[in-house]
Predict the 3D structure of the following.
Amino acid sequence: MPETNGHDAPRVGFYVCHCGHNIAGIVDVAEVARFAGTLPNVIVARDYKYMCSDPGQELIITDIREHRLNRIVVASCSPLLHEHTFRVATEKGGLNPFYFQMVNIREDVSWVTENHDAATHKALDLVRAAVRRVAHHRSLATKHVRIHPDVLVVGAGISGIHAALTLANAGKKVTLVEREPTIGGHMAMFDKTFPTLDCAACILTPKMSAVKNHPNITLWSYSEVSEVSGYVGSYTVKVKRKPRFVSEELCVGCMECIDACVYKEGKTPDEFNQGLSKRKPVYIPFPQATPQVVLIDPDTCIEFKSGRCKKTCVEKCDRNAIDFKQKEEIKEIQVGTIILATGFKTFDPKRIPYYGYGKYPNVYSSLEVERLVNASGPTGGDLVLRDGRHPKTVGIIHCVGSRDRNTNRWCSRTCCMYSLKLAHLLKEHSEAEVYNFYIDIRAAGKAYEEFYDKLLEENIHFIRGRVAEVTDWSARPEEEGKMIIRVEDTLIGVVRRVPVDMVVLAVGMEPQADSQDVRRMFNISCSTEGFFLERHPKLAPVDTFTDGIFIAGACQGPKDIPDSVAQAGAAAAQALSLIDAGEVELEPNTAYVVEESCSGCKSCLNICPYTAITRDETRQKAFINEALCKGCGTCVATCPSGAIRQNLFEDEQIFSEIEGLLQEKESVLTGGGAWRAPA
Amino acid sequence: MSYLYFPGCSLRSTGRPYEESILAVFRKLNIPLKELDDWNCCGATAYVSIDENRAFTLAARNLAIAERMQNNGNAGEDLMAPCSACYLVLEKTQHYMKTDEGVNTEVTAALRRGGFDYKGTTKVRHPLDILVNDIGIERIAKAVVRPMKGMKVACYYGCQVVRPFETFDHAAYPTTMDRLVTALGATAIDWPMKARCCGGSLTGTIQEAGLRLNRALLKEAEKRGANIILTCCPLCQHNLECYQKRINRRFGESIHIPVAYFTQFIGLALGIPRKELGIQRLFIPLKFADPPTKEAHAHA
Amino acid sequence: MASTGMKQGTNGWEPRIVAFFCNWCTYTAADLAGVSRLRHAPNARVIRVMCSGRLDPQFVLDAFARGADGVLVGGCHPGDCHYMEGNYKALRRVRLLQRMMKDMGIHEDRFRLEWISASEGEKVKTTINTMTERVRALGPLGLPERFAEWDEEMDGLAHAIAAQEEAVHA
Amino acid sequence: MKLPTPPALRTTVTNSPPRMKTVVRRLKFESELDLSFGEHVAERAYGQKLLSCIQCGTCSATCPLSHYMDYTPRKIIAMTREGFKDEVLNSLTIWLCASCYACTVQCPRQIHITDVMYALKREAIARGFYPARNPIPVLAKAFYERVRHDGRNTESRLLITLYLRTNPFKMLKEAMLGLHLFLTGRLSLKKEKIKGMKELRKMIDSVEPRKEAVPL
């Protein structure tokens, strides 16, 4: 007999929510309430417009008092949305919050069913099950765990940087891990930023050095997280620190070793400049790189290949910072919360051969152009093409690898605006005729539309049409030696051939190549496209389904700088609220051992992924460490003698749910009982 | 390795040299071909414009016959269709029978009426695909007796052999034929119109449009220094070759470039007599016997 | 009461499928299906568990015994389990159960395990639809009724025996 | 309402816009549209995605013939979707489509545009929506009959029928080419015919002819 709050028999209060028309439009809520009223133990059965509203919750609270209810069932939306709300209401009414059971008749019924009768029928079955289940509920104490105050931020692009600084300024210790030799991410590569046109470096580098100098931030660049274990409040993280072959402590970034290198000229395509220039084996990504530390690329360094280099770099370095023996290190840290800001990858335009990228030298990706027009870029900001010419006409093709079912279906959100920006910069740099080929201009942002206006005023060409092909097939003398962009001017309804000297492909944003591995490591989910999945698209945009792990920036979906920064701040705030609360409530859904039934067979021991189960050798019984148990219930299902049970998911509770679901006509129990667990 | 062979109507008239050269080349490589019993017209592009399920039925009969032959001693033999139109129509029929229930039920039923119980096992292949991917470039290269040195070839695939299904090559930038002719010692010129449409039957219907398409193709091929165009479809070949004179007359051009079937080209490289390859049937004669021109040497 | 039942379905009979969905992947996916208004067959009744690893074989048998025509289990894709490897444990048990149920003469199509990640609302829809169709094709399983029959036979037997005894001791 | 039949098929290519001869009303009343047309066509073209068109114009730009069309393929999709039935079925566009599938493979919405064009051709033929001497539907019909009759197509005979039905004088123009083909043995009047004609006819006729025309 389940224990109750002062009453022996369960006295159930049942409430069905209209949710406006969301539920009531399909499910006959009146019938549901009437039906619930006929069920055993049900004292009150009501339907109400919005149960989650204050008056709705008030209904529950007063009923508990007036009708001495000791069980509450609410049929409304998904428990993932409002279970907490109603548990609180139940508690306010003076009951233990776990005497509550929720029935999902919106996401699971009204929103997925057309037929009214079918929907109502399904709702009734679910309600019957819940009413039966709740009778077996027991009063439970919520579990609390301490939150370790330190935070791990993964990825040091603008999002990671902003999140780290926010936390550090709030006095929290932050470890910031970046895969590349320098922090700054994509933003560091940009020339100017839309719509204000202030230079990316000017606004980013101060934040970068702030990170470097902040007493509360440990910056581990050229490093990758290799292992994560633990749970909200106390995660153990292993970080792999790749060897730079230059001591971070000793190097001051004077870069004399670079000049001294036996290679007079660089031979390797420069990653930071998108391969538009060459770097030496010993290099620093760019002048303001943070940390200001050079590194050696063992794949191209003679010393590593032959071991017979003059090592002019070593001679030159008066601080003896260079160390060819440096080994990879694994560091281990303890943190309470984690923010993932691993960013995005740009679409590889080779995947659309029609645009001739990699075939015609003067077809560029937008990121390449960012470097090309940058004063500290490979050409010092001189807009000179791969074939040495200066362009007189430029065509910017929008939506490359976006809004296309053959590549990526989503809109990358940033391309329209950065294309406008590049159009402006290119015209500024070259006085060229600039064409934008777009499907739709998406300038929804503060001062974005105004920027579009400005560009129109600058007499940039805007042709509404998705480009079909870029070829060197000239049909007329004046087209000779040019690339021909073939497009329909959809606003005029005529196919146009536009000859240009330079083509810029506005490539879209994609999930990082290794996003699937990363999400597995951190035990979170990805949406269909492969971006990290937020807990709720509207109400929990930076939370994940794993408590204590938050996401910020473009790893969650295409985003521009303002949005990324905003999200980074939000993620930091979420982490802070956990940290400052000091502890977090956990579902008391842990497993426990009923000693008298335990035979000590050990079959549960190696089942538990968290090694929460040990064997008390003296008493020959299994013992579960509640602090370690995450409540998956795998051991419960494994125990041959039914000695392990799980709070909130007791066998009786689930059996009674099954019974309720299927018991259309009363008493078909015959024989069925044969399968019942020893309860 | 052996195949069932679906000639299609064109290869019995305008495309005759295509058939002759195919048979000759496969004979030379000792790859047996068995003509499909009592095959019927595939329906081409026109039939679908009248009634599509009937068009599918028409084409499906051939697939069914092929399957029947496979079950009677020709196990595992794919159905080779050299004409792009036939190739696509058969392929498309196969595709929609697999993907569209409506089509499947109706066509299968119709086939039953004709005494066919079609399981859908027939695979439709194009000779280009077979030669390069089954027989293999190496094997063909080994058999070359007269390398095509100095020949600058514009490989022209046309549309329906690669589109829409892209079964064995890219829809816009196919390379199969280019690799093949390179192996024969020739140079394949790179041009963006490899798979650009020749207008198909438009030359016969809305000729003005049809001619202009072909003119663009021919001019570009010549401009890029090609001294021959190779095709893998009777209609393309017909359009590009037989209408050259008219194109020149109509647009005041002076285009003169031979247009042959890629199989004829292979045949010559393998030293098969010109007559067996139907070379004499071409409007614009091929002068291969000549030693390569100096200019060609320079480029080769 | 439940007479508000479905009028659709030819003979009025509609397959009843009990579904055990794990909280983190499949249940979330089902919510997504809802939010995206992906209409599907109303025949599945979902029971939420934290992890498919909680699936006790008895749950499945009980469901059948109480009149389910099919049982569907949904968990995270291999390697994606929120609890590291609960779904593998589930897989093992399901394999075992499937063999058992074959011996019991329950058609394999009546019991299905699917990996459905949080983002696969579409898959929830198709899975439930296809399963419903398969089970509909198989017709009612009706274990409770069969149990009832067996019990009756047993009663008859019991009475007969009792009668005999009385006759002897009379 | 019936629109004036489209411009004659002698396409004259000029860069200066054609001079307006008749005034065409550019105002459209909703009552003049057939709002069911879009879906009707969509389901006949395996192109259900037709409705998802975003009017990007890739189809028009890939199309090697779009610049001779009275409406670009993109417009045809838009008009179909919006129910401009008469304009669509009267358009020259659907007849100019040479089924090269360039649009189909590049469409960012994966709309089977070529199949849509086929569907529209069938629709137009079924409703007699084309100028009497438009050679394409005539060719299609002639071809259809020939194949229904012999199981194979004899090109020579097909062409002759075509020219007789459209423009007999054109035959003279083609005579030289025809002659050349004869001489090279690439054209013969010998009729191609299959043995299993009865069985084929049985099969074909068993298929319900597609009733393209919907009640108007």
Summary: Chain A has five domains: 12-142, 151-242+330-343+512-581, 248-326, 348-509, 591-646. The first strand of chain A starts at residue 12 and ends at 17. The radius of gyration of chain A is 32 Å. Chain A touches chain D at residues 354, 399, 403-406, 439-440, 464-469, 486-490, 493-495 (CB under 8 Å).
